Amino acid sequence: MTEVRRPEPASRSRGEETVYQAWERFVQGEDDIRGVRPEIAISWHRCRDQYRVDPHLTEAPVALAEVDHALEHDVVFAELGFRAASLAHEVGNIGGIVTITDASGRVLAQWGDQATRTAAAKANLAPWFCWSEGATGTNGMGTALMAYTPVMIRGAEHWCRAFHDWTCAGVAVRDAVTRESVAALNISCWRSELPTTAAAWLGNAATMTQRILRRRARDDGAELMAAFNHTRSRSKAALAAVDPAGRVVLADDTAGVLLGIPGSTPAPDPAVRWKPELPEFIQAAKYAAKQAARNPGWLGSTQIFTRLANEPTAISFRPVFLSGHLIGNLVSFGVSEGDPLPRTGGDGPALAQPHRMVATRDNRMVLLRLPEVSFAQSDGNDVWLSTDQGRLRSASPGLDRLETELSASGFLRVHRQYVVNLGRIREVERRCKGEMFLVMDDQEQTMVPVSRRNAPAVRRALAI
Question: Which contacts qualify for 447-455: CB closer than 8 Å, 24 or more apart?
Answer without folding.
Answer: 448/375, 448/414, 448/415, 448/418, 448/420, 449/414, 449/415, 449/418, 450/414, 450/415, 451/414, 451/415, 451/416, 453/260, 453/261, 453/262, 453/277, 454/260, 454/277, 454/413, 454/414, 454/415
